[in-house]
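Quick log. Single chain, no ligands specified.
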Amino acid sequence: MSNQHLLIVDDHRNIREPLAEFIRKHGYRVSQAANGQEAFAVLRREEIDLVILDILMPGESGLDVCRRIRETIGTPVILLTAVSDDMDKIIGLEMGADDYVTKPFNPRELVARIKGVLRRANALPRTYSKLEAGSIRFGDWLLNTNTQTLTNDRVPDQTTELSSIEFRLLTTFLRHPRILMTRDQLLDHVSNRTATVFDRSIDNQVSRLRRKIETDPKKPRYIKTVWGGGYLFSCDVVKI
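-> predicted structure:
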């Protein structure tokens, strides 16, 4: 029996419960939720390794729930969608999903996707598996995860806004302080590779982020280049 714990979020009980039973037979622990509110109640209470999330739900959509998960907790997400349009899939990936499966699907395919996402997620030690909504301090900076903005102790009245990619890249570094991360690992966490709209050089993304957080981007204090290896976030992180 695996100790990996999955959460299925789907408002259709007749889909959610049989799927949970099938996944349990493959050795995973499974919790269930019918909507975003129930999902976050489980995420606050349990250590969840992966969320399987339906897009089309009443109230808060699966896309909105996905965005909140990735911005505050960072748990991997697989989207379940009845929509085959490529743009909807790209939007889901932009929101931070790690993969998607189109309904109707073969449950065995979903299990294979689960194994693949978990394998990628576990390739790096998750020093901070949860970055809850609120503030995170590193060096002179304070990151507000709710607004995706930065403030600096030296200029407290001035805020620096981050794009969605910059925010994802920064929070990836913050979850793995003082750990060498390869370019491929960063791309897996930030760009979700399947979304070709984000398939740009990770070096360019790092350069943009450095221009916002480094006093001298050519002599970075926070994001260090490890030649032949990748990047290392050279700063302690404190959750407030």
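The longest strand covers residues 155-161.
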